[in-house]
Amino acid sequence: MSVVPNATLHIRTSNIDTNLTLVLVVAAALYFLLPFFFRKNLVDKDGNCIPPGPLFRLPYLPDYPERTLHAWAKKFGPLYSFFLGNQLYVVVSDSNMARELLVNNGAIFSSRKQYFIKNQTILRGRAITASPYGETWRNHRKIAAQLLTAKAIQGYNDVLDYEARIMIRSMYKESMQGALPINPAHYTGRYTLNNMLTLSFATRTDTTADPLIQRILAMAMEFNDLTGPLSNLVDFIEPLQWLPNKMHARASKLHDDFIEVYGSMVLAVKERMDAGENVPHCLAKVLIEGQQQEKLDWEDVCMLSAAFALGGVHSTSGIIQWFLALIGKHPDIQARAHHELDSIVGRDRWPSAEDEKDLPYIRAIIKEVLRVHAPFWNATPHSSTEDFVYNGMYIPKGTAVILNCYTLHHNEARYPDPYTFNPDRYIGDELSSAESAHKGNAMERDHWTFGAGRRICPGINVAERILFLAISRLLWAFAVHELPNEPISLEEYEGTSGRTPVPYRVHLVPRHDRVHTALEAEQEISRCEL
């Protein structure tokens, strides 16, 4: 007799589970199909519709999202839209449109979306990269600009020069003078890390085995892993933010780690200043001296330091790695670069920052690397602060606006044969990338790697100097050879926020006897002298 009620209960529970599953499936289907029904009805008061695009809402973009965005640009045109969860994106894939929207109308398109993981949880709406457009952002950018203008960079020439020489020397010695292949990632990473540590905290490291440096590098990798653009479900589906999840827990911990680690580094600089040491000009010193005047709280100081120190490490290191991956496949380009260096610089000294203006082919190689392997194909999305209509297309307030660098950099009208690595396309371009970004004709800009408008990368000048010193000296010292049995992939990459090649090895063969002489003869500059 007692069996029947239990069986009935089981049937009812099963029916409830089935019905609940059905409801959830239907709800999810409606959620992702909704744009199909209201895309044409999402209009402004004058009847202007949002730009065309895919009919369905997406939970996230697949791996290699730039390929999806490029395919959509071909299908829907240079200005299109799509939905990720509850967020509307507008994608700009044309140079003139990019200038019109992000530069000429920068007052509207210069804010940032407050993404749940990156902006709200890790950076808490602070630092240059995360702050919404407004007075706070302007003040923070003004602080950073004190160290990043073209004039300010001249004061760091000795430091940047020193770190480039240390990188070359390490590669030379640890490859047994070119006898053994090496993975360049470790050396390029330490080079860019030391540059940013010096600019940020007036310090450097001789080894990445230092526990503090290990922690900084681990935090950088965690930040890149957590903040990949267009890949975090929780950023686009708001109800998920109310539920416990591992991403949020990791992001909260990273925020606390930033406060602890970068805060301790700022305090270390303050202790040196309080002890009467003549601390070199650096971000931490600027923040300490201006904290009260700029009305910065402790979290502002820590997050500004974190964003500044992180900003150039992974991306700049990645660009140098892409260069070495590319140049070994192009012996003809290498030979021409070697000839230019031998003719202008000679073999008795290193190329220096003063030589840059006289080495047009080296400059062209760097620009071409930045074009074909930008570290951020989708940049960091801008956000509109007002409704806007462009060419009859409605861009609502709060829209995330993507600068589609991949499509811009593969525009055949601007870059003939765009999939070919060809530095010759930049011969005659005597402008720096910072200068080129301000050209009136957007189709004449060299590339869009550093972004556009008021949110253009504030570190563009220092990045260009770091890249020139590294790449010119690698070419002066070595012939780069790809290993016959270890082909390097130029299609695959690692990282969702900042692209780097999958790990590879190359042979760096010293070009002449003067390489050994130069490396052995040079005396290391002491930290005090720096």
Provide a concise account of the structure shown.
The protein has helices spanning 3-38, 65-76, 95-104, 116-122, 127-130, 135-148, 150-154, 157-174, 185-201, 211-226, 233-236, 246-274, 283-290, 298-311, 313-327, 331-344, 360-372, 405-409, 433-436, 460-477, 513-521, and strands spanning 79-84, 87-92, 382-383, 388-390, 393-395, 400-403, 478-482, 506-510. With 530 residues, the chain is α+β, with helices and mostly antiparallel strands.
What does this structure look like?
- With 530 residues, the chain is an alpha+beta fold.
- It has a single domain, classed as Cytochrome p450.
- Helices cover 51% and strands 6% of the residues.
- The protein has 21 helices and 8 strands.
- The strands form 3 sheets. Strands 1-2-6-3 form a 4-stranded mixed β-sheet. Strands 4-5 form a two-stranded antiparallel sheet.
- Helix 9 packs antiparallel against helix 15 and helix 12 crosses helix 14 (298-311).
- 43% of the residues are buried.
Please state how the strands of the largest beta sheet are arranged side by side. Answer: 1-2-6-3
Ranges where pLDDT stays below 50 over 5 or more residues in a row are 23-29, 524-530
* Main sheet: strands, sense, barrel: 4 strands, mixed
Q: What is the tally of helical segments?
A: 21
- Structural class given helices, strands, pairing? alpha+beta
In round numbers, the mean pLDDT is 88
The CATH topology: Cytochrome p450
CATH architecture: Orthogonal Bundle
Over the alpha carbons, how many angstroms does the gyration radius reach?
A: 26 Å
- Percent of residues in β-strands: 5-15%
